[in-house]
Amino acid sequence: KSGDYWIDPNQGCTLDAIKVFCNMETGETCVYPSPSSIPRKNWWTSKTKDKKHVWFAETINGGFHFSYGDEDLSPNTANIQMTFLRLLSTEGSQNVTYHCKNSIAYMDEETGSLKKAILIQGP
């Protein structure tokens, strides 16, 4: 039955299990992000005409990284479980929802340009 399950990909102690959503009809497992959402606020206002790239978690004051797994577990625990889940899987995908006023996520519809597309950096 599809629903939330606790899984332990590294098959170690059950105390480091992570909560996931299992879709039994499609065979997919969804790992919840931590935090589950980012607060809505004005994160960045450029005071210069310099159009250089800005990393949310590094350049922006107050920006932060998001990860996967239970917020109550240490980040390293979730990283280990994600590594084992990756090794045990044949494919994976990630969905990121991006809402940012006056910003282009992928393609500028007016020009068809990808120059202003967001960049996503992995671990």
UniProtKB/TrEMBL annotation:
Subcellular location: Secreted
SMART domains on file: COLFI
Gene Ontology cellular component terms for the protein in this record: collagen trimer; extracellular region
Classification via InterPro entries: Fib_collagen_C (IPR000885)
Residues annotated as domain Fibrillar collagen NC1: 1-123
Keywords linked to the UniProt accession: Collagen, Secreted
Pfam families: COLFI
GO molecular function per UniProt: extracellular matrix structural constituent
Subcellular location, principal: secreted
Keyword hit for Plastid: no
Protein name: Collagen type II alpha 1 chain
Origin organism lineage: Eukaryota, Metazoa, Chordata, Craniata, Vertebrata
